[in-house]
Amino acid sequence: MSSFPQQDGFPHGDLLKNLVAFGEYLRRTAQQFKIGPQEIQDGLRALEAVHLGSLQEVRQALKLVMCSSLEQERVFDDLFFQFFLSGRQRPAAPSHPHKATPGGPEEGHEPIPARQSSPPEHPEGSGDLNGKGRPHPHEDTQADWAAPLLKAMFSRIEGAEAPEVEIPQQDLEAMLQAATQMVNQVRLGRSRRWKLASKGPRFHLRRTLRKALHTGGDPIYPAWQHHPRRQPRFIFVLDGSRSMQDYADRLLQFAYALRMRCNRVEVFVFSTQMERITRQLEKAKSLSERPRLHRLGRAWGGGTSIGENLLRLEQQYGSLIRGDSIVIVASDGLDTGAPEILELALRKIRQRSAALIWLNPLLSQKGYDPRANCMNTALPYLDRFCNAEDPAAFARLTQRLRLRK
To answer: Which residue ranges does the record annotate as region Disordered (predicted)?
Structure first.
């Protein structure tokens, strides 16, 4: 896949030159595009994951890499066809859009040439086109299934400023109640330490004698000791990558509610890097309307490095993960890193913590198989693997949870 054969309609014969020229075309034509060397490099990597014989797969792969907002996505398709099909006939709608012949070329639509050694599994003419010459939403299902994984692989332009993240206020009261219920359900047992109490199984002689000094030596107020119940600590780790953009706001709202209802809560977000946002959530409490998070940098809206960031959590913040800690990881599990790193990180976190919960929003999608990606590596180390879509589901996260310590 090193080059496109030189043909009419392609400004350059080399694949890299085509991508560089396309990036320059996007910057010149639409000012909202900020294409840099990192995006060109990511574009090359994206094309390795699709078949160059399918124009729609190439378009989808480059769209996921080069678009970082809805405004860019709205104009990308037109710019893509204008650049790569310049001088050719634009793909037109067939007379019977839902009866295209599988495997046959569509009228007026030539695919990007591919290597002869790897014939396309899904020929370009196997899908339908709508009246605007763009692929039908149900066409190119292979590229659609690959879309979340491609989003997880690529980050924003190096140096690009991360957007502000707003914590949703809709249903916040219900989420606060759910967080309270979840915290109250945790039963960690009693501490080994003795603590003063008004009643208890152990008589405290020294404290009783000290109290007797105020009553003329009479031990009217005896002192007792007991083993207090341990209070749980929550470590909430949220995947803020591009592939989680449809679910991250809801999960962030729950993390915010959990922090408001329990002081023993630490919250982290990660994308290609990790950021501790506990203090930012504390400051957000004082904002009565539209609390926001700032300066998240590469911890939000970029690529996905689950294993590396969880290992960094264990190494840098391992003192927070104790026998009374419940670690909650919220991620779709679309990781392109080495499975060995993820396995090492989860094994260490499991050894330190009382429970390890993984929230995966893709579980609600029909046909999703967690064994097809890095979740297959994570499943043996999890105490609970589930999805939470509403406050009632969040409230049940720790219900009947068996703690290991």
So the answer is: 90-141
